[in-house]
Structures are given as structure tokens and as C-alpha cells.
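---------- Forwarded message ----------

FYI, see the RNase H type-1 domain-containing protein record below. Original note from H. follows.
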Amino acid sequence: MGFRDVVLGIDSHDAHKSISNAITWPRYRHLLDKIKDVRSVFESVTFEQESTFSNSIARDIARSVTQDGRFHSYLALGGPAWLHNRIQEEAISNIC
């Protein structure tokens, strides 16, 4: 996709802590090493703590992808109808 700088929002406090200080989370070393490998592809990767509410659409996309076995991005194809409705509803609620 050509992105060099990436910002990822994480709504799990423990996940954010583990990525920020991997040495203190030896149980998840394998997963954290994979994250480290992915980070090396980009010039800059920043992880930000998000609230569960503000990250709800991203969480629902992830749930939909894993439950339905869609491991290739279906967002590039326009995404599912429910997603468009959720984004529109959120946009309207943020205006009011």
C-alpha cells in the first residue's frame, strides 16, 4: 500500500503495555516478536491507547474478519453494508 508511517489504536491496556515494554511480558514473546518484525517494514509505527468506545468499529471489523474467515482485506472491495451504516451513524453522532 506504500505507507511508511503507521499509527495503530489499541483499546486493550495490557496489549498496549506489552507492546511498549515487551521484556516484561515473556509469555507473549512469540507474538511480540512478530509485531516487531512487522514494525521493521515501516519507517515509523506508533501505538496509541484508545477507548473501547472510540475503537468499536475497528473491533467489529476485526471480529467480522476472523469469524467469517476473511483473512484478506475485504475493505478494499467496499466492505460490508453494516460497516457503511456504522460509519455514517458515528459521523452523524459526532456532528450533533
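H. also flagged this: The mean pLDDT is 83.
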